[in-house]
Amino acid sequence: MKSLARQLSWGLMALLSIAIAIVFAGPYLSFNPAVSRVGLNPAIPIHFVVLAIHAGTAGIALLIGPFQFLTRLRARYPLAHRTIGRIYLICIFIGSVFAFFSALFSVSGFVAQVGFAFLATIWFYSASKAYRAIRQRQIQLHRVWMIRNYALTFAAVILRLWLLLGQYALHLPFTDVYVTSAWISWILPLVVAEWFINQRLLQSLALKKDRASSLQQEIRV
């Protein structure tokens, strides 16, 4: 039952990620300002270019990210896992830097600017921690940081879902919904990620350590 629930959860995550990446990030690859769904700052001529680079790299990361959590892929095709992982991290490093500047250029107000800038900062930070961990062969720590990082990448999905909910279900003004999305979009998935890390990883590692300690004590006795 738990296995089925995990598969369904992964499938929903992958489906939403792919859909958002194609529908919302894809059009930015044309580099046509007319496709922008975000208000552009007329005082910053390069605002759309910055936004497009962020959308393109983030879209790729969002698209390929779910497949890095497939245990079978990691076990059977480690080279593919490493290659996809490198592409993912490169996209995050580029996308987060451009996301930060895009946040500063935002015309949605100070609260939204701070929210998106904070997201870009911890997005970059978590990716750098994941990269450092794998370079040091700290597999479990790498996995923890990658879960956190993809939760922040998944903010792109939560943002769109919150916009739909706020506008069409709650009938809130678009400006209010968009400003709150600058915070809800990454706080919510990050909380879920921390719950998952605690329930599925940390507790499991703690139990294994306790069992190993008990076994050693029995052997000594």
UniProtKB/TrEMBL annotation:
Keywords: Membrane, Transmembrane, Transmembrane helix. It comes from the Bacteria. InterPro entries: DUF2306_membrane. The chain crosses the membrane at residues 12-31, 43-64, 85-104, 110-127, 147-165, 177-197. This is Membrane protein (DUF2306). It comes from Ktedonobacter racemifer DSM 44963.
